[in-house]
Write a structure and sequence with these properties.
This protein is an alpha/beta fold. 55% of the residues lie in helices and 12% in strands. Strands 1-9-8-7-6-5-2-3-4 form a nine-stranded mixed beta sheet. The protein is globular and about 65 Å long.
């Protein structure tokens, strides 16, 4: 079983006298910076000069520097910009200013796993990866709670990388919930697989097909939206809290019978697993990473066209209208979707 750590295993004093540079001030960046500062850490922010986040970070009370300046000033450099932008920024603005004994950190292992970033041997390399979006990392911290985190150490040049990584995660609140030990390789491959096959690729495709099937059969789009999309949250919230059996307990026997009898017909195990296995193979051998790197090099034509198609899909149009006109739930605690 993977090793778990909690607050008792973390010593925030490991960060005493160390300056932490948070590179990027988006979803994760603002949460890490604010939580660490509230934990008593010395935090600065590194950004592109003239970027829209610069005045936001300054308004939040942080000293803001260019990335090269922040790298030179800091002992720990946490990179929290988009995966596809990290390698170029690292080579230009961080690598020339890394000196022995510093630590470079990540919240996702993509660029280390696929060797887009290769740090020098005399620096620590660790991962502090919250398993939740930045706004949740912040809101849970403010509420006195935390978001579970993953920890991994790729390179322990100083002999203290694990202690520093545990202290960092405690500083952002993760130790309040629990810290799971992993590796950069395993985190990257399982994270990509989960996103592609289940959490986003699988769930979104399933909801879209369900919506389209009902609409094509003559049912009102609004009814199709409620049944195939809106209610997804209700089911997943139950699974998150009490597991699949607990979710089943809250649903009718008719629904459970449909789960057992019809579900495997819609998603046959052999077919689904074969497709998932191919997706996992592409992740493990670097095929997917190569496609994503190339997609960014050629102007994101496929990616941008798919984003446009999604925005224009009837399930999104109907969903936008329903959410504007129906009174359910509180205001979303969510980052600006335009980022």
């Amino acid at each position: 079983m993977a090793k778990l750590y909690y607050e008792k295993d973390c010593d925030l004093n490991q960060l005493n006298g160390k300056k932490i540079a948070i590179i990027g001030y988006g979803s994760q960046g603002h949460a890490h910076a604010m939580n660490l500062r509230d934990s008593g850490c010395d935090v600065i922010v590194g950004l592109r000069k003239g970027g829209k986040s610069w005045p936001v970070a300054e308004a939040d009370g942080f000293e803001v520097y260019t990335v090269p300046e922040a790298t030179q000033k800091a002992d720990i450099i946490m990179i929290l910009i988009n995966d596809e932008k990290q390698a170029a920024m690292y080579k230009k603005d961080i690598a020339p200013y890394l000196t022995a004994g510093k630590a470079i950190a990540f919240a996702h292992g993509f660029n280390i796993r696929y060797e887009q970033i290769v740090p020098p041997a005399d620096v620590d390399v660790f991962m502090a990866a919250p398993k939740g979006p930045g706004h949740t990392v912040r809101s849970q911290f403010v509420a006195g709670k935390g978001v579970p985190c993953l920890i991994a150490v790729e390179q322990d040049a100083t002999g203290k990388a694990y202690d520093i990584a545990l202290a960092y995660i405690a500083g952002i609140g993760g130790a309040r919930a629990g810290i799971l030990e992993t590796t950069f390789k395993d985190e990257t491959e399982t994270d990509l697989f989960g996103e592609q096959c289940v959490l986003m690729g699988g769930v979104v495709q399933l909801m879209k097909c369900g919506f389209e099937t009902l609409v094509e059969a003559g049912y009102e789009p609004e009814s199709a939206y409620f049944e195939c999309i809106h209610e997804m949250k209700l089911i997943i919230d139950l699974v998150n809290k009490v597991g699949v059996r607990g979710m089943n307990y809250s649903c009718s026997d008719t629904a459970k019978f449909g789960e057992f009898y019809v579900g495997p017909k819609v998603l046959p195990d052999d077919m689904v697993k074969a497709n998932m296995r191919k997706a996992l193979d592409d992740i493990q051998d670097g095929t997917f990473a190569g496609r994503w790197i190339m997609e960014n090099q050629v102007g994101r034509t496929f990616f941008n066209s798919k984003m446009k198609q999604l925005a224009e899909h009837p399930m999104e149009v109907v969903g936008d209208e329903l959410r504007r006109n129906m009174l359910w739930g509180d205001k979303l605690d969510m980052d600006d979707m335009s980022n």
